[in-house]
């Protein structure tokens, strides 16, 4: 609800039509999808712990979880760059962060991460699974599936570590750009830190519970914190909400 309210506020208020809020609206949209898919799966597992999922549905779930997670990571990175330009180069900010560039960046993120998720899904589909297996996780993630494979997952692991190295570079850039704001820095550290714990752990069943907890951190906790950190502490968002509440009171009988 918090993320949806942010999206409505940014659309309705012309003063919020800036690059930062444009990226924030896309981040809130991604978080809404992320939280909805994760929480619905967790509730389903709670009501029916021994659920059965088909092979096709498992790969589809893997695809969308990867895409939403990667899009959020890149949006955090571009928001870091936007904040860096606004603070360090205010005179060049309007020329650099033009509306066309913002739309191009967000579109490129969605297309690039859709293809990246498709790559992981196709690599997973080439693996063989010997028999009916129990996935030690609350959704179909890469490492739990690789641990059940009867085929050598070397190529899958190589792609994971290659992309992980690039994500590490993005994380370093985010830490540098967000160093002026401790709350933004905490979100970046929580999202990237939990992601690294999930995808860089060895394929071992005794780490399955820790991996599931870390997955909850970047699929649920971080998206739920974003409305508080990026919006409720923002004067423009709070001003719009006050106007909305005042208008509602003035029109009430």
Automatic annotation (TrEMBL):
<keyword id="KW-0812">Transmembrane</keyword>
<dbReference type="GO" id="GO:0004930">
    <property type="term" value="F:G protein-coupled receptor activity"/>
</dbReference>
<keyword id="KW-0675">Receptor</keyword>
<keyword id="KW-0472">Membrane</keyword>
<feature type="transmembrane region" description="Helical">
    <location>
        <begin position="158"/>
        <end position="178"/>
    </location>
</feature>
<dbReference type="InterPro" id="IPR000725">
    <property type="entry name" value="Olfact_rcpt"/>
</dbReference>
<feature type="transmembrane region" description="Helical">
    <location>
        <begin position="93"/>
        <end position="112"/>
    </location>
</feature>
<keyword id="KW-1133">Transmembrane helix</keyword>
<protein>
    <recommendedName>
        <fullName>G-protein coupled receptors family 1 profile domain-containing protein</fullName>
    </recommendedName>
</protein>
<dbReference type="GO" id="GO:0004984">
    <property type="term" value="F:olfactory receptor activity"/>
</dbReference>
<dbReference type="Pfam" id="PF00001">
    <property type="entry name" value="7tm_1"/>
</dbReference>
<dbReference type="InterPro" id="IPR000276">
    <property type="entry name" value="GPCR_Rhodpsn"/>
</dbReference>
<comment type="function">
    <text>Putative odorant or sperm cell receptor.</text>
</comment>
<feature type="transmembrane region" description="Helical">
    <location>
        <begin position="62"/>
        <end position="81"/>
    </location>
</feature>
<feature type="domain" description="G-protein coupled receptors family 1 profile">
    <location>
        <begin position="2"/>
        <end position="170"/>
    </location>
</feature>
<feature type="transmembrane region" description="Helical">
    <location>
        <begin position="211"/>
        <end position="232"/>
    </location>
</feature>
<dbReference type="InterPro" id="IPR017452">
    <property type="entry name" value="GPCR_Rhodpsn_7TM"/>
</dbReference>
<feature type="transmembrane region" description="Helical">
    <location>
        <begin position="185"/>
        <end position="205"/>
    </location>
</feature>
<keyword id="KW-0297">G-protein coupled receptor</keyword>
<keyword id="KW-0807">Transducer</keyword>
<dbReference type="GO" id="GO:0016020">
    <property type="term" value="C:membrane"/>
</dbReference>
């Amino acid at each position: 609800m918090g993320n949806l309210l942010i999206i409505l506020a940014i659309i309705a208020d012309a003063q919020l039509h800036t690059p930062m809020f444009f990226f924030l609206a896309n981040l809130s949209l991604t978080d809404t999808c992320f939280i909805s898919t994760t929480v619905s799966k967790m509730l389903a597992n709670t009501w029916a712990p021994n659920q059965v999922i088909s092979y096709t549905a498992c790969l589809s779930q893997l695809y969308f979880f990867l895409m939403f997670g990667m899009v959020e990571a890149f949006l955090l990175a571009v928001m870091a760059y936007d904040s860096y330009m606004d603070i360090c180069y205010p005179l060049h900010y309007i020329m650099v962060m033009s509306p066309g560039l913002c739309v191009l960046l967000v579109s490129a993120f969605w297309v690039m991460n859709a293809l990246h998720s498709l790559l992981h899904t196709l690599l997973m589909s080439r693996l063989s699974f010997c028999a009916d297996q129990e996935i030690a996780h609350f959704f179909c993630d890469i490492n739990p599936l690789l641990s059940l494979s009867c085929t050598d997952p070397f190529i899958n692991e190589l792609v994971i570590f290659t992309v992980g190295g690039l994500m590490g570079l993005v994380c370093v850039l985010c830490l540098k750009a967000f160093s002026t704001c401790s709350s933004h820095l905490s979100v970046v550290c929580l999202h990237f830190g939990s992601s690294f714990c999930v995808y860089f752990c060895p394929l071992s069943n005794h780490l399955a519970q820790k991996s599931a907890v870390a997955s909850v951190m970047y699929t649920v906790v971080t998206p739920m914190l974003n409305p508080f950190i990026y919006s409720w502490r923002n004067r423009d968002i709070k001003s719009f909400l006050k106007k909305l509440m005042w208008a509602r009171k003035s029109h009430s009988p």
